[in-house]
Amino acid sequence: MGRELRVQDGATSLPTLADVAAMAGVSRQTVSNALNNPSLLRADTLERVRAAIAHLGYTPNRAARNLRTKSSRLIGLRLTPFAEDTANATIDRFVHALVQATRAADYHVLLFDGNDPADPSSGYDDLVRSTAVDAFVVTDTFKGSPQAAYLEDGGVPFVAFGRPWTPAALHPWVDVDGAAGTSAATAHLLAQGHTRIAWIGWRKDSPIGEDRRAGWSRTMHGHGLRTTGLASRVEDCVTSGVEAAAVLLDEAQPTAFVCASDTLATGVLHQLHERGLRPGRDVAVTGFDDSPFAQLLPGGLTSVRQPVEEVAVQVVDRLGKLLTHREVFGSGTLLEPTLVVRGSSER
């Protein structure tokens, strides 16, 4: 049932704990126990209180509960500026999924911005000192991430979307197996009859990029195919993808590309268009992240899709365990992505 509003002096107000107590014929303390310590009540009493709560549509006052429990039920997530010349929207999907997952667990997400990206405490410091949030979710977990180190050193609870890439890290994490994704993309191209499959990825100092590269390399070598001269490491932007594709097409003559991101794959598609080559029929292309662009492109871009909805559920589950001291520090969960096949890779 919906909330039952009371009228006092011509104004309406939401039902209170006292209203529930009066309807159920119990004390206010009994209602409080029903909400916070139901095991203390007899089954019939608990059922009577819950029926009154449902009838009135009563919702506990969050601010008052926070004063008693010292818990905000808020999870902090720092947003970083959107990078220009990229097609990646994975974090957008993750934020939406995280909001849904936290709400199901009776938490809410507090989004905040760091004024100084170079300062690991920027944005975090005020929230940590004011205890405005119970924990954080961190998404920038590249090797040696200063944000993760700052929180870890301060004993601040957090769970990362992304591996820490260092055995010394103690925080729990959830990540997607990038190598498995690019391996699936490479195997798909091999099944289409391609043997000269090029790789365009990120710089060597990117462990995520190297992880994705490993899937392509391992699968090629597993089929007895050489990779010498077929790989390029560049910045993650469309322009870099255009330039890398031009060099590889001129010097290595690949018939297919596996890219570390949809952004780089977009650059390859631009280069094919400039040469009058058709994706799929002439040169196959696969990306990574299954961005909106991949889905909207005429014919579609074959891309590896990260299960960010499941990532969010796992992150929230680990947060719950962390905050109730049931989490194993340093442990992680690696999830499998899926390959979404579209016209850019089919002849």
From TrEMBL:
Sequence ranges assigned to domain HTH lacI-type in this UniProt record: 15-69
UniProt cross-references to SUPFAM superfamilies, sorted A to Z: lambda repressor-like DNA-binding domains, Periplasmic binding protein-like I
Top-level taxon in the UniProt lineage: Bacteria
Gene3D superfamilies registered for this protein in UniProt: 3.40.50.2300, lambda repressor-like DNA-binding domains (1.10.260.40)
CDD domains for this protein: HTH_LacI
Keyword entries, A-Z: DNA-binding, Transcription, Transcription regulation
GO function terms (MF aspect): DNA-binding transcription factor activity; transcription cis-regulatory region binding
PANTHER family recorded: HTH-TYPE TRANSCRIPTIONAL REGULATOR GALS (PTHR30146:SF109), LACI-RELATED TRANSCRIPTIONAL REPRESSOR (PTHR30146)
Protein name: DNA-binding LacI/PurR family transcriptional regulator
Lineage: Bacteria, Bacillati, Actinomycetota, Actinomycetes, Propionibacteriales
